[in-house]
Design brief:
The chain is built from seven helices and five strands, in the order ααββββαααααβ. By secondary structure, it is an alpha+beta fold. It has one domain.
Length: about 150
């Protein structure tokens, strides 16, 4: 029996379709993040990009996201620099660090809802940056570690 593509290939060797299939749909890459200039520590906020569909936890303008949001992380094009900004639950980060896909990942369990049921997605707590207070520091997720 053949192994699944994510167990046989390095991220850099995957086709675009394979790469996109790995996205677990958590939406955490769409959360606004802050970096401490002194320590380089990264903190997540509960604010999502205005183009994130908070129910689906995905970008509504994905093909043009880099043009619309210059700070948007283009993981495929710049994975090494983006990796620190990714949560530990991210399928790309897990595979890059030698971990298997999580049990709730749809490629493992067969359902795209399991990630939400497991509480791993942003669906239950994120809000759009368009509806937030102006002080982004009020939205830091203090008790949540990536």
């Amino acid at each position: 029996m053949t192994k699944p593509f994510w167990e046989e290939k390095q991220l850099s060797d995957m086709s675009n379709d394979e790469w996109e299939a790995l996205c677990d749909g958590c939406g955490k890459c769409c959360l606004l993040k802050l970096e401490d200039e002194d320590t380089a520590d990264i903190v997540f906020t509960n604010l999502s990009c205005r183009y994130c569909d908070l129910n689906a936890c995905s970008c509504t303008r994905y093909p043009e996201r880099s043009r619309l949001v210059p700070d948007c992380l283009d993981l495929r094009a710049n994975f090494e620099n983006c990796a620190p900004w990714l949560p530990s639950t991210c399928a790309y980060k897990r595979l890059a660090t030698g971990q298997p896909l999580a049990s709730w990942h749809y490629l493992i369990c067969g359902s795209r809802e399991t990630i939400h049921e497991a509480g791993v997605s942003i669906r239950s707590y994120a809000q759009s940056e368009d509806t937030a207070s102006e002080d982004i520091t009020e939205h830091i997720l203090n008790d949540w570690l990536p």
